[in-house]
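Human: If only I could read backbone structure tokens as easily as an amino acid sequence. Underneath my words sits a plain record pairing an amino acid chain with its backbone structure tokens. Take your time, and here it is.
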Amino acid sequence: MRLRQAITLLAIFVGFSLVAAPITMADWGEQATFSVEQVPQSDIDEEIPVLAYTNLSGDAQTPVRRAIKSPEGHYTVYGQDDWPEQFFFSDYGAPGQGLYAITYEGQYYQLSTYAGGGFPFVYWFLELPFISYGLCLGWVAHKTYQRAFSSRGALLLTALGVGFNLLGPAFDFPLVAPMQFVGLGIAATIAVLVWIFVATKNASNESDPSV
């Protein structure tokens, strides 16, 4: 398969994954938040179970540790399938059901776990920049296959689309906060529209012998 065809197919696949953001980014609306506060042992209510960090499962240790290490004392896991089974998640807290104490490296922490999220249409709105980018990427793929756009530019735009999948809720926003992620999506959509405009104009000039 020629390189241009391979790039075209890759761009179509990545574009489709972004157009399908309500499905591929569905984890965004399924939020389990861990909040911790370091406290003296004497301040822990006797009804609250005390859990040793080392006794937690691996999928439970990660969010607890990240919440403790976070300057804000919070960490969110996106996607209900990834919520640790050792904890209870709801919109209320009770000892052993959303309220716990954790011992970590000799210190005591009070831990609150609760479920968040909201109406699906809120997240559909936040996903609009990525849906738009995916549609633009599909057009880029079409024009690249027709040799109207450069394969190098299409590959760069496709790589950016892959980056959005890796930086999003499926991987718990590993490098940027959710609203920063949205901002990147808006900026990228504007940039790709400008790129399409310039590439289309250049292709038109090249095909017009009077230019």
Strands lie at 31-38, 50-52, 74-78, 94-95, 98-104, 107-116.
